[in-house]
Amino acid sequence: MAASNASTSQPLLTADGTPLKTSLQRSMRRSKLRAAMLVLPPLVFLLTLFIFPIGNLLTRSTDDALINHQLPVTFAILDQWDRQQLPDERLFEAMFLDLTSLNRYLIKDNFASAVNPNDPAWKIQIPKKGPYRDAMIAIAPHWKDAKTWSPIYEIAITAAQATGTEREIKHQQKRAQFKICSLLTPLTNAACSKLYTALNQWDGVSEPDERLFKALYKDLASANKFLLGKSSTRMNYEKPGFKSLIKKSGRKLKKVNEPPYKEAMIKADKRWGDIGFWHALLAMQKPQTSGYYLNAVDRKWDENREVVMQPEERQVYVMLWWRTFLVSLIVTLGCLILAYPVSHLLATLPLKYSNLLMICVLMPFWTSLLVRIVAWMIMLQQQGVVNDTLVMLGLPDEHRLPMMYNFTGTIIVMIQILLPFMILPIYSVMKTIPPSYMRAAQNLGAPPSLAFLKVYMPQTLPGIGAGVILVFIVAIGYYITPELVGGKDGRLIGNMVAYHMQKSLNWGLAAAMGSILLAGILILYWIYDKIVGIDNMKLG
Amino acid sequence: MSNEDTFVRFKEVQKSYDGETLVVKNLNLDIERGEFVTMLGPSGSGKTTCLMMLAGFEPATHGEIYLGDRPINSVPPHKRGIGMVFQNYALFPHMTVNENLAFPLEVRKLSKSEIATRTKRALDMVQLGAFGDRRPAQLSGGQQQRVAVARALVFDPDLVLMDEPLGALDKQLREQMQYEIKHIHESLGVTVVYVTHDQSEALTMSNRIAVFDDGVIQQLAPPSDLYERPENAFVAQFIGENNRLLGSVESIDGEECQVKIDNGEVIRALKVNVDGVGKRATLSLRPERVEVNPEPGKFPNVFDAKVEELIYLGDHIRTRASVCGHDDFIVKIPNASHHALLNEGDTVKFGWSMEDCRALDISHAH
Fold first, then answer.
1. Are B37 and B227 in contact (CB under 8 A)?
2. Would you call B78 and A436 a contact, using CB atoms and an 8 Å cutoff?
3. How far is A448 from chain B (nearest CA, A)?
4. Domain's final residue, options B215, B233, B251
5. What value of ipTM does the predicted structure carry?
6. Please, are residues B53 and B65 in contact by the beta-carbon 8 Å criterion?
7. Who among A436, A439, A444 is closest to B103 (CB)?
8. Is it true that the peptide bond before B157 is cis, omega within 30 degrees of 0?
9. d(CA A152, CA A160)
10. With 70 as the cut, is the pLDDT of residue B354 above it?
11. Residue B365 included in any domain
């Protein structure tokens, strides 16, 4: 009793008087540190190559900052429009200014949500042939101050003083030009070369002169051209035709100098008189957009900010999602049906036969994916081995089965490719089930079929679960097989992601699709955890 | 059938796995209803194979097995109605104890209430009434073993097979379980065929023991007979401790024979299993049947012995001595109030009766 009282009232001490806890921590510190060091490399690897890209994917799928930067004034007053009729002169003027002027790069509060649309500075036009200084200072007086220029001046001077080989110096200068541009515009891949040169000819303290402003104007103008292109691509996602509208009217609007802008713009391109283009702007007004996600499921915002279906001819994705889901389901089931008996054979055969069988199972793993797919093409195409055999057996030549470049082809080849992912976890679970369970069940009176259903199969569930999850997850994002053998009606959502990444460059949509896939997989995982329990999953 | 009470009958049963060697050689065995028969033998002696053939998991290569009057060679395991306790228990890990017990009853399509009562009764029988909702993995080894016994009995089979069911338990638990199984057998009157390689287990529990070696039953007898009247050198050696003296038969006189052992001494022994005068024989003598310094004339066999080693074991003193040229002759001296006090190196006399010294065949390899 006395001892236990002592231990509760005061901390335990070691022989030399230090508290036991401190002593324990000290003795464990080294091994903990060593353990942490071991974990560090994979952790860093995971963070940089997995967590970070996924975070990037998620932000990209909702990011709409660029367009907000491009049309600050328009978006600032867009809410005042009644959305029923064509906008009035005021909105047209805002659009005209946003499309033609460089003012947004000069004014400090230049983001749609922070813009003061009533600031007269928006309406000041910089003369195209100069002089630039006065107009630009009139737009944003802080440019008059040398301090405003000093951050970019520092960058330019530092780069100019760089030492090293010629190549290194050139590289430094290029980097400085990129850096300057990224400070002034949302672009990170444009070079402000004129400004760089001009800054290097400046002393950094005297009042900025016309030469600096001219360089600023020229660099901003070329950056703006690029940004306008990007923005119009974004606008085109909301309403096809927007890109060509911007491009075409951009040329003509250069000649317009004074109000009324509404008539001038409609004259430049009559699509400005189409209310649909103005409605499309509503979906882009927030710096975060759900537009990509809506697009990924064939939906969009309408003029009343309600989610509606895309017009019928533009609906593709919902069907693709369903097809992807269906293909994954069929492939998973097919793999399960084929894998179960093979796994059982693997687990019960004597070692010398099971080793041979295991090699057969693993062989596909050691063969290039492309080789396997091409082999299937040879097997399944119209003039392929399977069809030739069938014709030889009496199938009329004109009725050769279409098994390649369609849904069937995708299913067959994906099942073959993903089969090992199903076999291995099931096999590893079956291997641990001693034959005595089946014997016991039969001994207790169950016929072999019932013994299998009630006793053997439930024990293989962890393996089945692991295999199903594995195959389904791999199948749902599958890309290369459908691309090669899928033809038109065997394409899956993965192919659409690739298309938008590589061809249409609509990364926002690709990212949204990727995020939906990820969410789908996480939901499946959650359901699996609820039904089977993740602890019950055995991967090997 | 020859005997009314014969319940299980192996008739000329042979078994081979590879077609080259026989694992079970010409087995004939009759087991009576309600009997507890143990198949005892070293590993590889064919005892488990016999059990598997009886349960239906291995087909007999030749011969017939009868259950009651029915030949069961072509009856599949699930229709034999035999309960079985497996070596590793084979309790279904994904079911609770209750579900495990209910399994054979559900298969037999009994009513829900009937299943509940029978399950409860079986669990109470093994004193695990409170554990019905646990999974096998949540039970200790001894508890799992009891559940396995309860499951093998819950559907009231007439015959229960047990395949080394206590092998995985520690010594104390094993002894306790031996008594429990024995009592269950006695109270239910069920026929039990039990396989083990542990002779004390066999001696404790069985009505009769079949000692297997090399695919052949060496002797089938009640435990006391097996110990006291082994019929061949293997059984004498395998069951209990045994002093073995080798020699050749000098003369035979009715029940008695004289054997000249290899150092020249002649011992009078009971003729049990010898081939004839001049043939080699093994003399078998239990260590506790030897008397130290017997009264003169009490025993026909009295020899000088030199005490080599004394081991104190509490209830008795194990004495190793050189007798008749054998220096591994063991004598157990009971730790009684007037036992002989020996010291290492003493020379004393050892004596034993003719009946306790059994002349047997020459055992092979063992």
1. no
2. no
3. 8
4. B233
5. 0.83
6. yes
7. A444
8. no
9. 12
10. yes
11. no
H or E element that contains A331 = helix A317-348
Q: What is the pTM assigned to this prediction?
A: 0.79
Enclosing domain of residue A27: 2-60
How many CA atoms, within 13 angstroms, populate the side-chain half-sphere of residue B153?
A: 23
Q: What is the pLDDT of residues A24-51, one digit of tens each?
A: 888 888 889 988 999 999 899 988 888 8
- Which of A313, A342, A374 is a domain's end point? A313
> What CATH number is attached to the domain comprising B12?
3.40.50.300
Reported as a single tens digit per residue, the pLDDT across B79-95 is 999 999 998 889 999 99
Write the DSSP string, A337-374: HHHHHHHHHHHHS-HHHHHHHHHHHHHHHHS-HHHHHH
- The sign of the dihedral angle between the CA atoms of B213, A434, A441, B138 is positive
For A166, the token pair is: 């010629």
User: Is there a single domain that holds both residue B331 and residue B184?
Assistant: no
Which of B190, B210, B233 represents a domain boundary (last residue)? B233
Nearest to B26 by CA among B55, B50, B51: B50
Q: Whats the size of chain B, residue-wise? A: 366
Alpha helices (H) in chain B, listed in sequence order: 47-55, 97-107, 112-125, 141-153, 171-188, 199-205, 223-228, 233-238
A45, A60, A75 - which closes a domain: A60
Same domain as A330, residue A264: no
**A453 interfacial to chain B (CB closer than 8 Å):** no
The minimal CB distance from A434 to the residues B83, B84, B88 is found for B88
Tell whether B264 and B169 lie within a shared domain: no
CB contact under 8 A, B92 and A447: no
Note whether A445 contacts B104, CB cutoff 8 Å: yes
Residues 6+ apart with CB under 8 A from A351: none
Cβ neighbours, 10 Å, residue B34? 16
Whether residue A78 contacts residue A92, with contact meaning beta carbons closer than 8 Å, is answered with no
The span from the CA of A27 to the CA of A50, in Å, is 35
Residue B1 lies in a domain: no
